[in-house]
Automatic annotation (TrEMBL):
Biased composition (Pro residues): 367-376
Assigned EC number: 3.4.21.-
InterPro entries: Glutamyl_endopeptidase (IPR050966), Peptidase_S1_PA (IPR009003), Peptidase_S1_PA_chymotrypsin (IPR043504), Peptidase_S1B (IPR008256), TRYPSIN_HIS (IPR018114), V8_his_AS (IPR028301)
Listed PROSITE patterns: TRYPSIN_HIS, V8_HIS
Family the entry assigns: Belongs to the peptidase S1 family. Belongs to the peptidase S1B family.
GO biological process, alphabetically ordered: proteolysis
Alphabetical keyword list: Hydrolase, Protease, Serine protease, Signal
Protein name: Serine protease
Transmembrane segments: none
PANTHER family on file: SERINE PROTEASE
Main EC class the enzyme belongs to: hydrolase
Lineage: Eukaryota, Fungi, Dikarya, Ascomycota, Pezizomycotina
Amino acid sequence: MMSSATLTSAPVPTAVGKQSVTAKKPNLGPILPLPRHVKAAVWNLNSTEFTEIEAPENTESLFSGTAGESVIGEDSRKKVNKKDFMPGGKYRSIVKLFLRFAGQDKNAPWAMGTGWLINNDTIVTAGHCSYDHSHNLGRLTHVKAYIGYYGKASINDSKNYAVQFRTGKRVAIPEGWLAGEDNEPRDVSFIQVDRPYTGIKPIKYQPTPLTGNKVILGVVGYPGDLMNPKSKEKGAFMYEMYDATTFDISKTKNKMLQYKVDTYGGNSGSPVIRQPDMASVGVHVLGGNPNSASVISGPYGNPFDAFVTALKRKPKEAGEEGVATIDGKEASWLSWETVPMNETSSGGEGDQPNETATGSPDQVPGNPEPPIPAKQPDPENRLEEGFFDFLKKALKVPGPFGMLASMGMSAVGTVLKKKKEAAFDEAYSFEGVAERALLGEAALTAVVQLGTSKCKDLGIFQRMQPTVLKLRPVCRRAGPTIMPFVIEPAWRMTTKRVTLPTKQTGEGAIEPAHIPTSDDTNTLVFGPRLDANAEAFVRILTKNLTMEDAEAFTGTESTIGEVVGKALRITGPLLGSVAESGLSRLVGDEIATEADIDANPEADLNNPESSEYTYDAMSQRALAGEAALEALLHTPEETLQQEAWWDAVKNVVIKWGPKVLGSGVPVLSGAMAIAAAATNYATAMKNAKKREMEAEAGQDQLDAGENGETGEGDVNGVDPAESAEEEFLATLENGV
């Protein structure tokens, strides 16, 4: 890490207001638990000076303490894609900060940091970005804050960028951080800007888990060691890095979240983002090996909502009760705000206690919250240990691969099931397969956007789990056989090389379907009446469709209404019925356990970690979509009404619907070939097993190897089972 000397050239302040602050730190004593309330240090910033939109010319990274270089091993940071910090992007609410402190003279460099918006006018950042102990710079006085920042040239380039600029208005920090930099768990601060940003989606935050096993964590911000090669500006670009992280906060020295994600000065204050729900679970504050973040809520963390409440209160005037004194002398710039816990805002779900491995958080000195017993999960609602591992692996696979994987498995299973029942009709047996796969992917996207906390509270994970546990073994076994037919069409979808099926054009063209406005879904556009759960799902989705949504399917052979209708006319989970009686014929009667599959390298393409797109992961993405759809279909209507899931569903249907319908032909053709080969193989194996039993019973003595005779069931001395297996494998290898 860069030496702290970069910011120590400025003289140490001797007086701030009426009292020396940096020359003599406040003697606040040990920070003890405050029953049911939080104490915050709050002061106003100068928002009338340095208001020009241009970024400062003279800047340096701000570091806390003397921690060493925090790029660990090989530098794995990646520059963030432009679309991710532009309007609508996932990192739009990450803020580039330029900071000035009371202890700096007018010619000293501005410090650089990173922050993130938790509402449209409140930035979370590191505590040392608001009160500096390491360089004796003292309190923060000025902030220039930009979203969409991509170097100084981007600020006035409205044609190519959408930068928004604000100045800081007010700041709040924990009492513990003002007391001294040794209290590193309190290294967090909250900055209110002079006016709200527009068109942003705040970054959600959640209590930091006390433990984690291979959790995907990332740090996203503006590191000061990387520069624009053209302008030589340091910290010009936003970078990200994610890595699997195992942690136990209770075992760390300072009770902080630790990780080996690469960072650097300038990253101070960055969110520590968890995948796949993209929630922040910490604030990056310290470099080293490992790097560290201050914790959100729980027994070791900082209750964000309380500090937001303190920040938004009316500032106290000099002489009022509550204005701070240090050593009995008034510090006119500082006021204390004490916030009862029941007065905090709902914020971003940041004030609920974390759960420890044993379910009960321990009290720790310096904790601003009293211990609150963690809620014990209902035994009937406990999630299996591997459920989230399954979900994480599934979500690494792009949606198109999951949708076509679902089509492939459903189609193969349907053929095998129908042939077993002597009911196969190629013209109708695949009806709804593509639509169900599409709606499953849409439901999974909606579940992801709801976030893990809400999904747990609403019981969505609990409703997904039975489908996953029931179907996962057979889907994993069937995946390597079916997925080769999926990959090429899926890649075509992702590269926009799909030829869409078209409707008739000209005078005889059919007008695009209109959006039904009635609450009654028993209409042609949505097919026959569905069960009560599906009715509610369709009714709510229908109310939120627009004519623009409907026109997305103009020129294709379907409508958005027909897609939803066909997908839901199928009784029960499509994958469920075909997996039980169809795919089981493909993989055999004996379904391997999870341990068997994990122990067999061939089940995961010889090396399950070699690619994000293994056949196993693709089948899991398909299964996750089906499970998510079933979970939403069985969510009470009053809950569906309250949660904004429909935008995610309709956006996926609109974006991918025409492409899925246009990409399905090769998948269905492959399904037919697989089913035919599997039927022959299964018949041959059945006959071979029958002969084996007859031989053991002494009813039929076959010894072609010794006698040179051809057995009744053999063809030119070749075992039928081996012949069928070779034919089956040859069919797959030749691409049908």
